[in-house]
From TrEMBL:
NCBIfam families: HTH_metalloreg. It comes from Thermobacillus composti (strain DSM 18247 / JCM 13945 / KWC4). The keyword DNA-binding applies. Keywords: DNA-binding. Belongs to the AHA1 family. This is HTH arsR-type domain-containing protein. The keyword Ubl conjugation does not apply. InterPro entries: ArsR-like_HTH (IPR011991), ASHA1/2-like_C (IPR013538), HTH_ArsR_DNA-bd_dom (IPR001845), START-like_dom_sf (IPR023393), WH-like_DNA-bd_sf (IPR036388), WH_DNA-bd_sf (IPR036390). Pfam families: AHSA1, HTH_20. GO terms for molecular function: DNA binding; DNA-binding transcription factor activity. The lineage of its organism: Bacteria, Bacillati, Bacillota, Bacilli, Bacillales. Residues 1-88 form the HTH arsR-type domain. PROSITE patterns: HTH_ARSR_2.
Length: 253
């Protein structure tokens, strides 16, 4: 939390966050065009923001794109700010906007969120795939289905009604889980085409005992309502997973 507030203290870094709020997924060249400082200076500020968890990066071809990370903002809300200023924190949790798709960016991921958890990749994998654990942080939804590539799955609420369904596309425990996603519980999303969720789990060698969890939501051109819901919802899911693993208790308890 100290790293987050230190990163936010610099006006140039706040400007970079504002630029990504206006249009997410920008390259270094795009961001440099808006700041009167050297390319090296912008790179240094971006590195500090990334180390604090306030933004994430993804490569598509030769380009590196920068994204706001709502999960870190959600941590501020859940662990500190909500005690003093709930309305303000709720506004911060929306520090991300719909991306404007560009025709030359077919490979660019659309929503990228990341969180660090004090645990092992194996524990994260268990939390991600075990029904008794998903039901404690994924909006009370229990994952049902054989976790293997090509197998279908459902997320069931406590009454046994499907909240979501899809198919596992890639299963590489404990490092990567790729799945299609169709959100069923809302009228505006139930008839949309499936989108895709990719979970990437990485042990941090520089921070022993810490695992980095990244979730990418993409291929939602035909599911705009689903994209809007998951943009904020996934930040809560990640925060809930972190709390459950690190404390043994659900986020709401």
């Amino acid at each position: 939390m100290d790293d987050i507030f230190k990163a936010l203290a610099d006006p140039s870094r706040r400007t970079l966050l504002d630029l990504l709020y206006e249009k997410d997924g920008r390259t270094l060249n795009e961001l440099c065009a808006h700041l009167q400082m050297s390319r090296f200076g912008v790179m240094k500020h971006l590195r500090i923001l990334e180390e604090a968890g306030l933004l994430t990066t993804r490569r598509a071809g030769r380009e590196k794109y920068h994204y706001l990370n709502p999960a870190a903002i959600r941590q501020i809300h859940d662990q500190w700010v909500s005690k003093y200023a709930e309305p303000w924190a709720a506004g911060l949790s929306r520090l991300k906007q719909e991306l404007e798709r560009e025709p030359d960016m077919e490979r660019k991921p659309r929503h990228v969120q990341r969180i660090a958890i004090r645990t092992s990749p194996e524990q994260v994998w268990s939390a991600l795939t075990a029904p008794e654990k998903t039901s404690q942080y994924w909006y009370n939804g229990a994952l049902r289905g054989e976790v293997r590539a090509g197998a279908p799955y459902e997320i069931l609420n406590p009454q046994g009604k499907p909240q979501a369904r899809g198919e596992f596309l890639a299963v590489e425990p404990p490092r990567r889980l790729e799945m299609t996603w169709q959100l069923l519980e809302l009228a505006e999303t139930a008839e949309e085409k499936p989108s895709r969720l990719t979970w990437e789990i990485e042990a941090r060698a520089d921070f022993p005992g810490v695992t980095l969890v990244t979730v990418v939501h993409d291929e939602f051109e035909e599911a705009p309502n689903t994209a809007r819901v998951l943009e904020e919802g996934l930040a809560i899911v990640l925060s809930g997973m972190k709390t459950l693993i690190e404390t043994g208790r659900p986020l709401s308890s």
